[in-house]
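Predict the 3D structure for this chain.
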Amino acid sequence: VIDSVSQAIELTTGVKEALATLKEQGYRVAVVSGGFIQVLEQLARELELDYVRANTLEIEDGRLTGRVAGKVVDRKAKEEFLREFAADAGLDMAQTVAVGDGANDIDMVTAAGLGIAFNAKPALRAHADVSINLPTLAGLVQILGATTPGEIQ
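Done. Predicted structure below.
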């Protein structure tokens, strides 16, 4: 079931190119999700993410129990993970960028040096420094000044 769900994930248009461009420019990239790590692990490897945190589905005897094991990735945890990633990378919080789309991203986005609402709910847009309302992540790369001509469309 987990493999089936993992294969059904549809990425935002341009995400692979945007991440590759940012990585080429020296950015470290993380995903913090209220989803499930078992679904995101393979994708995180494919995208060469530096950090990934998500909820862990509890599995007993090869079956999903319906419970989450460990720390629940909620609004507070997302900010805590951003701080953890920044510390691990030797960055001040002012050097971080957080991108989110919902109210559970507010703490993370407001804690970051640059908080970006991407196709976000109004609750998050009210707290973000920048709002991107486009179907692609090319705008993110341009805001960060990391665009390499011809790479992002």
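The two ends are 34 Å apart (CA to CA).
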